[in-house]
Amino acid sequence: MFEQLKGKTVKCLACSHYCIIPEGQVGLCGIRKNIKGKLYLLVYGKAAAVNIDPIEKKPLYHFLPGSKIFSFGTLGCDFGCLFCQNYDISQPTREIRFEPNRDEILEELLESSQDLSPKQIVDYAAKNNIPSIAYTYNEPAIFFEYAYDTCKLAKKKGIKNVFVSNGYESQESIKKIKKYLDAANIDLKSFSEEFYSKICKARLEPLLKNIELFHSLGIWLEITTLIIPTKNDSEKELKQIAEFISSIDNSIPWHVTAFHPDYKMLDVPPTPLSTLLKAYKIGKQAGLKYVYVGNVSAGKYENTFCPKCDSLVIERHGFFSVKNNLENGRCKKCGYEIEGVWK
Description:
Elements: E1 2-4, E2 10-12, E3 20-21, E4 32-35, E5 38-41, E6 46-47, E7 49-54, E8 68-73, H1 87-90, H2 92-95, H3 102-110, E9 114-115, H4 118-127, E10 132-135, H5 144-156, E11 160-165, H6 171-177, E12 183-187, H7 193-200, H8 205-216, E13 220-227, H9 235-248, E14 254-258, H10 273-285, E15 291-294, E16 304-305, E17 312-317, E18 320-324, E19 326-327, E20 330-331
Parallel strand pairs: 8-10, 10-11, 11-12, 12-13, 13-14, 14-15
Antiparallel strand pairs: 1-2, 2-3, 4-5, 6-9, 7-8, 16-17, 17-18, 19-20
Helix pairs in contact: 4-5, 9-10
């Protein structure tokens, strides 16, 4: 995903930074390098994190509930979030970009990654009856070619594909992968350009456009907002987020999750439950049918209720669905069709 510019300079088309990369240099993510006028993905086939997770952990609550998902990611990220919970794999490649011995340091970092080809991933999922694959832990946009090749193979085997993303893909990459992508959980971290600029080293506007694009392409979409005390927890901002989601489609699930101090944001306290419940209420007032509280034990606020008759449709404890009262995607009690991907 790149465009040739003058001489041997290239423009990366993987994410919305659209980095202009001179020969011998890397993009903001630190893993896409211009070698003699061609852009190479330095982490192709190199998985830095691999797990079999419950689908609810992504979090996806309206997509194959109760199933397992093969989850993997690589080194690197196009964001520099000060609160990143996976900073040990996402941030080192950004931090070494300007080191004179950058290539040697990256080689050392890659020693802890696992050689894992797209075929190996898909074969493992198929052999173990795992119905979906998640491109997660860091940002899938930046390892696009690795993700794309895996998605294509998975689709041929009837395995579904899920992006867990910061939403900063380029529109070109979304359109290229759309027919292979079944679902996405996108982090809408704030509704403030200042927050995105100072705390994430990115911009808000491309993300909002991408959320609309994902939805318009028919990719199942859920949104997550990590609520950080004093940073994005004002009633005004939470209302802006909820109303934006509702304006696209009020059946998009919104996950409001608790912050825990991490990486470079150790001086901010964990999110109180009262703030999460405030966000839940704001989401409901904005007309959202499905709002969930996460990263804490939240009781009924983890469950899915029928928007029509209010009966319990899916009961969850933590990352697990323990009771499913759906019948062919409908509420057993009143027959209302619950939005989601159920098979």
